[in-house]
Write a structure and sequence with these properties.
Length: 68
């Protein structure tokens, strides 16, 4: 399989965006839990769902780069 420069760019951009998104999601969730500890259960569930969606974008870009 030939892995071209375009595939590398796809993986780089497709990995950078979700990585930043997951970092921001985690930071804001911890900040929200720090402000309101009683809502930690609801915040954690929403945080994990949002992180899963962001991670799915990285997986899609990885698959697209190798099947291109």
């Amino acid at each position: 399989m030939i892995f071209t420069l375009a595939g590398g760019i796809i993986i780089a951009i497709g990995g950078l965006g979700p990585a930043l998104g997951i970092g921001f999601i985690g930071a804001k969730a911890v900040e929200a839990i720090g402000r309101n500890p009683e809502a930690a259960g609801k915040i954690m569930v929403n945080m994990l769902i949002a992180m899963a969606f962001a991670e799915a974008i990285a997986i899609y870009s990885l698959i697209f780069a190798f099947t291109k």
